[in-house]
């Protein structure tokens, strides 16, 4: 008989031990396979860039060599941004070549002339010397204005020579006659300029007045004519009355090889005008001079050019003819209250005349 008091224990359930669920498949983050892949890609790119660069420079070298008209290499002295058509003996691609230069390298359809080879190539390129500009051809010309003419005098006042009038070459000079005792002088000056330095004694000239040569010499008074400076060539001309044509011809013997002779002759015209101003005087009176009678006087006699001693004085009494007179006073004697006429005429050396007449009654 079974023991009812003992409970029947069922056999234990067979359970699988508790197992921790497995982690997701895959490696930890630190050991992800994507990094080696990226390194691989970068390595491939670098290798490709190096190969492409080597290929490019090899191709560039070939194109430059093909474009050169010279079979032998030469050294270019001056660096240039543009590719030279002349290949250099030591040319080799370098990592410092700028990419911008590559895009502009094209073989020219017209080859450039081969540069002259430098005997000893320099380690660093030196600039190509610039050809010197050829010195300009000698050219001697006149300034502007090319000349001027002036009249001067010394009136003894202590001021020395004074300019009376002056004209440039664009005017017609006209000078009034002045007193000969003032030593009047007419001077013509021409203004010369050269485009190069040259010794003065190398420049010859002739000076003509009314087509007659009055001076023919050189500019030896100037040791050196400096380029761009103006030099005066002056001469005194006659002060006699009349018209004058004055000319200066530079390099008259053509001893200097000038580039042009178009402006080697300058001219100026002027006139010395004869005095046309009549003398001046005052006929004063009549005066009652008692025993001398009724008198008239010639006073303040003068002229702008002719000296007083050179003036011609004439007088006329009533209806008589003109007669020379050297005095300054003339007196009448006769019936008191009678009418008379007295006239005086003064003439200067140029024929200018002044006449005055007085009609009066005797005292």
Description:
- The protein is mainly β.
- Among the domains are: 134 residues, Immunoglobulins (Immunoglobulin-like); 82 residues, Immunoglobulins (Immunoglobulin-like, Sandwich).
- Helices cover 11% and strands 35% of the residues.
- The chain contains two helices and 18 strands.
Question: Any key phrases for this structure?
Answer:
11% helix; rod-shaped; four-stranded antiparallel β-sheet; Immunoglobulin-like; 363 residues; mainly beta; five-stranded mixed β-sheet
Number of helices: 2
* N-to-C span: 222 Å
Strand order of the largest sheet: 3-11-10-6-7
CATH superfamily of the domain at 140-273: Immunoglobulins
* Average predicted local confidence, pLDDT: 78
Q: Could you estimate the helical fraction of the residues in percent?
A: 10-25%
**H/E series:** HHEEEEEEEEEEEEEEEEEE
Rounded to an integer in angstroms, the radius of gyration calculated over CA atoms is 58 Å
The first-level CATH class of the domain at 140-273 is given as Mainly Beta
Beta-strand content bin: 25-35%
Shape: rod-shaped
E-strand count: 18
Assigned CATH architecture of the domain at 140-273: Sandwich
Task: Give the uncertain stretches in residue-range form.
Answer: 23-29, 69-119, 129-134
Largest sheet: 5 strands, mixed
Per the CATH scheme, the topology name of the domain at 140-273 is: Immunoglobulin-like
Structural class: mainly beta
């Amino acid at each position: 008989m079974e023991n009812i008091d003992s409970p029947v224990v069922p056999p234990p359930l067979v359970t699988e031990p508790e197992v921790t669920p497995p982690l997701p498949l895959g490696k930890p983050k630190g050991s992800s396979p994507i990094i080696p892949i990226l390194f691989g890609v970068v390595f491939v790119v670098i290798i490709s860039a190096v190969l492409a660069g080597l290929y490019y420079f090899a191709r560039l070298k070939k194109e430059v060599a093909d474009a050169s008209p010279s079979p032998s290499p030469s050294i270019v002295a001056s660096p240039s941004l543009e590719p030279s058509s002349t290949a250099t003996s030591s040319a080799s691609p370098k990592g410092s070549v700028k990419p911008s230069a590559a895009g502009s390298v094209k073989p020219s359809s017209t080859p450039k002339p081969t540069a002259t080879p430098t005997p000893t190539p320099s380690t660093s390129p030196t600039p190509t010397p610039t050809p010197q500009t050829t010195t300009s051809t000698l050219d001697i010309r006149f300034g502007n204005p090319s000349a001027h003419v002036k009249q001067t005098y010394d009136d003894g006042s202590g001021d020395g020579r004074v300019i009376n009038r002056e004209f440039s070459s664009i005017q017609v000079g006209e000078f009034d006659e002045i007193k000969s005792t003032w030593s009047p002088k007419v001077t013509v000056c021409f203004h010369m300029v050269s485009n190069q330095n040259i010794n003065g004694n190398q420049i010859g000239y002739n000076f003509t007045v009314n087509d007659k040569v009055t001076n023919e010499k050189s500019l030896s008074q100037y040791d050196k004519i400096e380029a761009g400076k103006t030099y005066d060539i002056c001469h005194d001309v006659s002060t006699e009355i009349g018209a004058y044509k004055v000319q200066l011809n530079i390099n008259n013997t053509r001893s200097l090889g000038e580039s042009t002779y178009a402006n080697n002759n300058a001219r100026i015209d002027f006139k010395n005008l004869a005095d046309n101003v009549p003398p001046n005087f005052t006929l004063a009176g009549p005066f009652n001079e008692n025993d001398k009678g009724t008198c008239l006087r010639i006073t303040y006699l003068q002229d702008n050019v002719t000296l007083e001693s050179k003036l011609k004085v004439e007088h006329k009494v009533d209806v008589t003819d003109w007669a020379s007179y050297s005095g300054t006073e003339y007196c009448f004697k006769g019936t008191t209250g009678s009418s008379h006429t007295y006239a005086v005429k003064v003439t200067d050396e140029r024929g200018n005349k002044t006449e005055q007449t007085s009609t009066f009654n005797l005292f």
